[in-house]
Design brief:
This protein has 27 helices and three strands. By secondary structure, the protein is an all-alpha fold.
């Protein structure tokens, strides 16, 4: 057996590639060494038949010598243990995070590095742990000694002799992340940074930053120009005219957003910012009309304003709706969102449409009040009034007649709505037709004594009236909150009108859909019409 799992790994019952290996070891190891490690792991787990160095070499696409060097490399990193002799094998050990590995470094190995470090920073007294941090970083990230010394010299050029070790190590990690581990690659990267120096200086000046450019600045600039594709003049334009605070990090956030929005030149960016400024001003005016205050508007613009504008509402219309919402006691953005959605469903998209809706509500409310019906004038009642006038085409006389019959009821508006709904279903067009069809009024009768049966009938009628009030209120709530029920109710009434006119209409599909909608609310038709109980 050539490769095998350690007892600890085998007993864990987990046969997988450890995430620590992928994140901390794989990025810095030679490619063929990674292949050997993974193929050997497959063999140890019994997934692949490669129990000799030669078979493993074939599986990994390399040769036996590379296999031997690879396992020596992984043994040095503490991931495998090798045994030679008659029973030679490579044992896979548990993967330990680099931060938890205890390593001893040979002073002789790094003697040349230490001498050069002192030559670069002659006035510094280095503590033992500082040396170890340099050794550890070079060892784990596979940075060549000459490359590390060049990075230290570059950092000194930027920060001076009093530079902190932590800063040097952070810069070295950035170089390693970009694959710069050798003297040649680090030298090439520094030359690239130097070439960008003039442009970066202009960017820093545009941001009003009084400091020299640093490696992180160069890395960001490279991302903006190479990955995002922005031209230098565009970056400087944004830094000078748009960024108010946040420095290079703030500029990076803004340019990243422009990249996502596919805004590549200064003209497109300026056009976007002008539009965005108008959105801020509009959202601020809407919030002012509602009596609200938000410190940051980005989220409310995205969640509300952009949606409203996509529905076709103009700026003036949205301000008019906000004013209407204030008068209707709808003083939250979510309430206004409901109003906007309702107006869109009704096809009311202009400021004039909204003003007409509000005027209609006030006029009908005044009419009901004149006939003894007290109105709350909330959004539900205003929608009900609109339905009477615009969807059912009820005249003021018919509304007044219904109000007379509803006056004094507990839920007077809902009661009037149920009366008008019956007239609408019956296709009645005038108050005279409604009066003839109604049997609510009766001639006055002289005082008399009632029998027990008559009293029982009277009490039953009172109870029926209460049920009718509750049913009307329930139907109103469903109409206001469930668009599916609203459309079904409308379809049913249109069908009943057609039937009243003698047309042949099949109600089966409408009633099945109605039963399904009501069932979702835990209701039946009897809850909406006591006569069907």
């Amino acid at each position: 057996m050539f490769t095998r799992l350690s007892r600890e790994t085998a007993e864990s019952g987990k046969l997988y590639v450890d995430g620590v290996f992928i994140t901390q070891y794989l990025p810095f190891a030679p490619e063929n060494y990674v292949k050997v490690y993974l193929c050997g792991l497959c063999a140890a787990q019994g997934i692949a038949d490669a129990q000799t160095p030669e078979k493993l070499a074939v599986l990994a696409g390399t040769d036996a010598e590379t296999v031997s060097k690879a396992f020596a490399y992984w043994e040095e990193n503490g991931l495998v243990a090798t045994k030679s002799g008659e029973e030679s094998y490579v044992e896979y050990l548990p993967v330990v995070p680099l931060s938890k590995q205890i390593r001893k470094y040979s002073k002789e190995k790094f003697r040349g590095f230490n001498d050069q470090l002192h030559a670069l920073l002659p006035d510094r007294n280095f503590l033992p742990n500082e040396y170890n941090e340099y050794y550890y970083l070079m060892d784990t990230l596979r940075i060549e000694v000459e490359a590390m010394l060049m990075i230290i010299g570059y950092c000194k050029q930027i920060k001076g002799d009093k530079i902190h070790t932590s800063y040097i190590l952070a810069v070295a990690r950035k170089f390693a992340e970009e694959g710069c581990l050798t003297y040649e690659s680090v030298s090439e990267k520094i030359n690239e940074y130097d070439f960008q120096y003039r442009d970066l200086t202009a960017v820093l000046k545009a941001l009003k930053l009084k400091r020299k450019s640093e490696p992180e600045d160069s890395r960001l600039y490279g991302k903006w120009t190479k990955t995002f594709g922005f031209k230098s003049e565009t970056i400087i334009h944004v830094a000078k005219n748009i960024i108010k605070r946040g420095g290079m990090e703030g500029l990076d956030r803004v340019l990243s957003k422009y990249y996502e929005l596919r805004l590549s030149d200064a003209d497109a960016i300026d056009e976007y910012e002008i539009k965005r400024k108008k959105q801020y001003e509009l959202m601020g005016e809407i919030l002012h009309r509602l009596g609200l205050n938000y410190d940051r508007l980005d989220s409310v613009i995205e969640n509300y304003l952009l949606k409203w504008q996509s529905l076709g509402f103009t700026d003036d219309t949205l301000v008019t709706i906000a004013t209407y919402c204030l008068t209707a006691n709808m003083r939250t953005l979510e309430s206004m969102n409901g109003a906007v959605t309702g107006f869109h469903r009704k096809g009311l998209l202009s400021a004039a449409d909204i003003d007409a809706f509000a005027t209609l509500g006030r006029d009908v409310g005044d009419l009901l009040t004149a006939h003894g019906v007290v109105c709350a004038m909330d959004v539900g009642e205003r929608n009900t009034f609109y339905k009477w006038k615009r969807q059912w085409n009820m005249s003021d006389e018919m509304i007044a007649l219904a109000a007379d019959k509803a006056a004094g009821k507990k839920y007077a508006v809902s009661y009037a709505d149920s009366i008008l709904a019956k007239w609408f279903d019956a296709g009645l067009k005038t108050a005279e037709e409604a009066e003839r069809a109604s049997s609510f009024s009766s001639p006055s009768q002289p005082t008399r004594t009632y029998s027990a049966e008559e009293l029982e009938a009277m009490f039953k009628k009172l109870d029926d009236d209460k049920k009718l009030d509750a049913a009307a209120d329930l139907k109103k709530k469903l109409m206001d909150t469930d668009s599916a029920f609203y459309e079904n109710e409308r379809a049913l009434r249109l069908a009943n009108i057609a039937i009243a006119r003698g047309e042949d209409v099949d109600l089966t599909a409408i009633m099945k859909e109605r039963e399904k909608i009501l069932a979702a609310h835990g209701l039946t038709e009897a809850d909406l019409d006591p006569d069907k109980a």
